Amino acid sequence: ARLVVLVSGAGTNLQALLDACADPAYGARVVAVGADRDDIEGLERAERAGVPTFVKKVGQFSSRDHWDRALADTVAGFDPDLVVLAGFMKLVGEEFLGRFGGSVVNTHPALSPSFPGMHGPGDALEYGVKVTGCTLFVVDAGVDTGPILAQSVVAVEDDDTVEALHERIKVAERAMLVDTVGRMAREGFVVDGRRVRFGRTSS
Ligand code: GRF
């Protein structure tokens, strides 16, 4: 399967996918990496792996919709089977979802439906939950609201800082992402309402 991965930062989730794809049995290949900003480590990781990269900054476009369309056009050019938002800090819009909807997955560092948005680990710490974790879901028009593919639980320690907790979540997140994307690539998946089933038929 052809993966296009979108990043906005360190790209450790991307790196986990790049490493997994090195095994031909994994069943997927990262064909391009896109970002909404320059000089981030995620782009350097792609370049080191010899993967084509592109940057689409919202500010370069006259409107958010124009950005969304330009992003969709560039991604479409790589003919992806799956688009993976791995630490991508922008919401893709109607045009993008219209083109790839159902084949866009996103990883979120909290147990959905708890703590959606930009500060999942901090919100979990603030709330005082004893367990949190990460969620891989199929992107829909909401914020972190799509049908859930996989989740992984991480304990919150008494002395946790947001950074320490997020780093621990990211360990689980990388494993969840690699395992689930690989399964989707090899077996296919079908979204049926809020349910997602692996396999290629909807029977
Ligand atoms: C991940 O935890 C992702 O879920 C969140 O930000 C982090 C990105 O990490 N949105 P990286 O860029 O993959 O290292």
From TrEMBL:
NCBIfam families per the record?
PurN (TIGR00639)
Entry's PANTHER family?
A: PHOSPHORIBOSYLGLYCINAMIDE FORMYLTRANSFERASE
Q: In which pathway does it act?
A: Purine metabolism; IMP biosynthesis via de novo pathway; N(2)-formyl-N(1)-(5-phospho-D-ribosyl)glycinamide from N(1)-(5-phospho-D-ribosyl)glycinamide (10-formyl THF route): step 1/1
GO MF annotations in UniProt: phosphoribosylglycinamide formyltransferase activity
The Formyl transferase N-terminal domain covers 2-180
State its Enzyme Commission number(s): 2.1.2.2
**Can you state which reaction this protein catalyses?**
N(1)-(5-phospho-beta-D-ribosyl)glycinamide + (6R)-10-formyltetrahydrofolate = N(2)-formyl-N(1)-(5-phospho-beta-D-ribosyl)glycinamide + (6S)-5,6,7,8-tetrahydrofolate + H(+)
Which residues bind (6R)-10-formyltetrahydrofolate per the record?
64, 89-92, 106
Stated family: Belongs to the GART family.
What name has this protein been given in UniProt?
A: Phosphoribosylglycinamide formyltransferase
The active-site annotation reads 108
User: Which BP terms from GO are recorded?
Assistant: 'de novo' IMP biosynthetic process
- Residues recorded as binding N(1)-(5-phospho-beta-D-ribosyl)glycinamide, renumbered to this chain, are 11-13
Its Gene Ontology cellular component terms are: cytosol
